[in-house]
Design goal:
Length: 138
């Protein structure tokens, strides 16, 4: 079990890892070893995540989520498979942690009387300045 928050844990069986060859420079080593990791996590079908957290997770993931709700995280920054695996897992944990926080709903407020008065005073002053720019009539 991978602990996300004190009340939320992920089952390791829900995470699939595949190792592929990393892109970019690296010489002979990069051409013959599969050090990059592709981590897949099915958020919609996960038994570990509550449905609201899963939906927020898919929304937060953006391009990293497929239409079926599968998150695909690719890590290839390091030259070792273990470090890339740890990085991909930590990115997944960070995303899930952000998804557990509910957004506080916005409460509509009205402008204060003072701010309305200042706005109207400014408009009045601006109107007066513009009216003084006109032609002078006899």
């Amino acid at each position: 079990m991978i602990r996300i928050t004190p009340t939320l844990s992920l089952d390791e069986a829900e995470i699939q890892e595949t190792f592929v060859r990393a892109a970019g420079p690296g010489g002979q080593h990069v051409n013959k070893s599969s050090t990059a990791v592709q981590l897949r996590f099915d958020a919609r079908r996960s038994r570990s995540l509550p449905p609201d957290v899963a939906e927020r997770l898919i929304a937060l993931a953006g391009q990293r989520a497929t239409q079926d709700g599968v998150l695909v995280i690719t890590a290839q920054n390091h030259r070792s498979q273990r470090l890339n695996r740890d990085e991909a897992l930590s990115r997944l944990i960070a995303l899930i942690t952000r998804a557990t926080v509910r957004a506080t709903p916005r409460v509509a407020t009205r402008p204060t009387a003072g701010s309305r008065r200042r706005r109207l005073d400014g408009k009045r002053q601006r109107s007066e300045v513009k009216s003084l720019r006109g032609k002078i009539s006899d």
